[in-house]
Structures are given as structure tokens and as C-alpha cells.
Amino acid sequence: MKISRQKIEVLMVKQGLSLVKLSELSGVSRQSLATIRKRETCQMATAVKICTGLGCSIEEVIPTERGDNA
Question: Bridge partners of 41?
């Protein structure tokens, strides 16, 4: 599924999370998180784990048609 790198990074900054901390909270390896952020795609189950670590819903990390800043 497509995810928004920008939205994930904004949520991380707002919460003061590093990639290492998000990895710990989500159960997704740092290497996988780095790859996901670069490719902006992952499996639904992985997106759910990332959202759990960020404390957000899936809708908050999916790109919008108008762009990520909308």
C-alpha cells in the first residue's frame, strides 16, 4: 500500500521520535522503516504496526490526491 513519507516524518517530529524509537515502538526494524520511507510503500500489516508506533490511524499516513500537505 502507498504511504506518505512526509506524513510519517511530520508525525515523528511532532512526537519527538527517532527512527530507532519508532522501530522499538512499532516492532518494525530500522532497516525496514528506512526502506519503507524511501519507497513510500509497504504491506498493510506493516503500515498498521507503524501507525501503532506513531499512535495514529492508517488514514493519517496515506497520501491524499491533493498532495501530502493537504
Answer: 2
Q: Which residues contact residue 13 at a Cβ distance below 8 angstroms, ignoring those fewer than 6 apart?
A: none
pLDDT in tens, 16-67: 999 999 999 999 999 999 999 899 999 999 999 999 999 999 999 999 876 5
CA 67 – CA 27 distance, rounded (Å): 28
Integer angstrom CA distances of residue 60 from 17, 29, 31, 64: 16, 21, 22, 10
Q: Distances from the Cα of 14 to the Cαs of 10, 17, 52, 65, 69, in angstroms?
A: 6, 8, 15, 23, 15
> d(Cα 19, Cα 68) in Å, to the nearest integer?
20
